[in-house]
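Thread amino acids onto this structure.
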């Protein structure tokens, strides 16, 4: 399939787009699994195409973060900024020169070429992984600086990280306490925090560490905490998210558990993805979410700087404002 600006592998059977092996189906969802793919061959991820995509990108669909030097856990420097009036080329150069992390969220809703790619990726995965019936698919693009880092955190839907350019180290931790405390992931579900989870350096002794190179995808068990360290080069990655009945039910039961813990001061039972206990908690979660009662407790996005190529750290302080 070709367009004037991009091409990617055809959709008739997805030849080679994702190189699934028999063992991948046995590992999927249970253990971290690394799979080969062909995204680096697509001009959808060239500097020219990405630069044009960035220009005019909807403000509510991107995050631009500055972080501390790699090897430090200084979350105070994990601050959100704005692209300002920079051109796409200026943004890419500032990322190359700084300590920045640009997350273009829900790209499939902004450009139909990426929507087709998202469908092709999951059709290829579902064809090789029996029982995989993903819903509510999402595709994002991460563009990050040499030696940038993403702090320890957990995500709610199923996650895969597809490396397109550059190399990085990905640390994947067990998805159970003490690495994933229930009260903290409940806070993420309730939108009271973004995705951060308390981290201790000794957690690394229990992590699986992967060097991710272009043409490799990493998938990990649902909600497994992880963190990322770029090698000394610009990195471009694709993130895909998907929901399943299991992840949806866990979300619902954790939503209600979080309300019980915070509103009633009662220690709730463990979250569950199956069985009759799901439905009463799912009904409560749906009713509260639909009512908007928790909206005022949503974690605010505070914008503290704007991109300023050529200035120290490629940023300029601004009067903070909420997105």
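Threaded sequence (323 positions):
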């Amino acid at each position: 399939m070709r367009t004037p600006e991009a091409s990617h592998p055809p959709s008739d059977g997805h030849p080679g787009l994702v190189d699934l092996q028999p063992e991948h189906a046995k590992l999927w969802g249970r253990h971290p699994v690394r799979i080969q793919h062909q995204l680096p061959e697509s001009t959808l991820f060239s500097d020219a195409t990405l630069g044009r995509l960035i220009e005019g990108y909807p403000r509510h669909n991107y995050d631009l973060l500055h972080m501390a030097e790699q090897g430090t856990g200084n979350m105070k420097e994990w601050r959100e900024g704005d692209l300002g009036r920079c051109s796409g080329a200026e943004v890419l150069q500032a990322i190359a020169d700084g300590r920045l992390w640009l997350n273009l969220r829900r790209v499939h809703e902004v450009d139909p070429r990426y929507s087709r790619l998202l469908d092709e990726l999951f059709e290829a995965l579902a064809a090789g992984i029996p029982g995989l019936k993903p819903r509510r698919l999402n595709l994002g693009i991460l563009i990050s600086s040499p030696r940038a880092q993403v702090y320890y955190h957990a995500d709610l839907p199923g996650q895969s990280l597809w490396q397109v350019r550059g190399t990085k180290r990905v640390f994947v931790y067990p998805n159970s306490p003490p690495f994933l405390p229930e009260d903290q992931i409940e806070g993420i579900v309730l939108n009271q925090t973004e995705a951060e989870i308390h981290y201790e350096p000794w957690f690394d002794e229990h992590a699986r560490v992967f060097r991710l190179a272009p043409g490799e995808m990493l998938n990990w068990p649902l909600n497994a905490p992880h963190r990322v360290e770029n090698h000394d080069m610009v990195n471009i990655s694709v993130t895909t998210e998907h929901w399943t009945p299991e992840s949806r039910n866990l979300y619902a039961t954790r939503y209600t558990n979080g309300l019980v813990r915070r509103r009633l001061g009662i220690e709730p039972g463990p979250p569950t993805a199956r069985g009759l206990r799901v439905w009463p908690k799912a009904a409560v979660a749906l009713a509260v979410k639909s009512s908007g009662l928790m909206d005022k407790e949503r974690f605010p996005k505070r914008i503290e700087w704007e991109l300023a190529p050529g200035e120290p750290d490629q940023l300029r302080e601004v009067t903070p404002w909420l997105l």
